[in-house]
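check these tokens.
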Amino acid sequence: MMPLYRIIFGIIAVMSASLTLSGAGRDTMSGIFNPRFRSLQVHVNDNDQAPPVIYLDGADRLVVSFDELAEERSYLRCRLAHCNSQWMPDGLVANEFLDGFNDSQVDDYDYSRGTTVHYVNYRITIPNDDMRPTISGNYLLEVYEDGEPDDVLLQVRFYVAEGWAAVSGSYTGITDIDHRAAHQQLSIVVDGGDDLTLDDLSNRLSLTVVQNGRMDNTVSIDKPQYITGNTARFEHLRPLIFPAGNEYRRFETVAINSLSMNVEEMDYVHPFYHARLRTDMPRGSEGYAYDMTQHGRYRVREQNSADGNVESDYVMTHFTLKSPPLQGYDIYVDSDFMLRRFSPSSRMNYDYDAGVYRMAALLKQGSYNYQYLAVPKGTSAGRTAPLEGDFYQTDNEYLILVYYRVSGARYDRLIGVALIDGSSPSNF
């Protein structure tokens, strides 16, 4: 009889064939490129609600974790790549951005316990004894099998920042497009202070804003609106107006033997447990209702376990959205558990007999945030309005990244970072 893990891997390989990319087609977004791997997350000091930012020479540690659906561990290695502010490789060699060896063994791992789906949980900590970033900027961590450095299995983005500049900002529903309706407009100030001299701010300073971790509507601005002394202001700029969206939807699969939040049915059909979520409806016409969510993140946990990383099972999770077919759009489930990718594995298929969109994903037990994005065919930017609605009251999270290119330098320094949640900015 074929071992259970081989049956599971065969099913997952068929479902996730679209995740496997050739070397030539691989990009620099966070992603999993081999169907054996699941649950790729990046935390700071085990804080799963923080963006993946650490400070140069600081005490924080970045922890990258992921699972391999297997009975035995693989011999994995990892390396770093440095990218410019637009996530393009900037051509720096390892000794220009790294202290140590840019080829480190992944030797922190543990085996699942008491689960129907067997897996190996891996953890990579940055900095570590083998590699320590020496410059700020955008970094890509790549994982590959020992002896196969050209076959990247998975990769994740993170940021290393400097404390050069103080960054502050706020957002409002009173915008240059509408007034307390469907948008939010940001105002951002970058203050170099008395000890920092930024020459030629107009040409060397740039800004990137990420809304709720989404990559499809990230905004980059290469010139401040106003410069006063050592202070740059980004105000009344059209790119800083975002569709406001809605609070994320939620569900939990923390229990196998009972129904958790928004789970309608839980049963076992070999070789997986299956969780069928309650049918979702479009929310654009319902009006805004506040709900404290985590901006698309998820937390692995099992309610009776002391260590959910290795004692949480995998559950085939079924999403259903009741809606007429949206002509001209592809519908995707957007969340950190989909790594914010518009791929065949996150795209919903329309069931004309039932009048619903459907999608299923093998997810580790836990608490999840998600939303539905409508992506116009032929484009790569999702819209919240058709299915979630846009409400100016929505509590969004904006990550602000400030880059500076020193004269003659070959890379973009990340000199300041701030997180705006509601109307309260914070530097970290």
Q: What stands out?
A: Residues 166-244+393-427 form a domain with the Immunoglobulin-like fold (CATH 2.60.40.10).
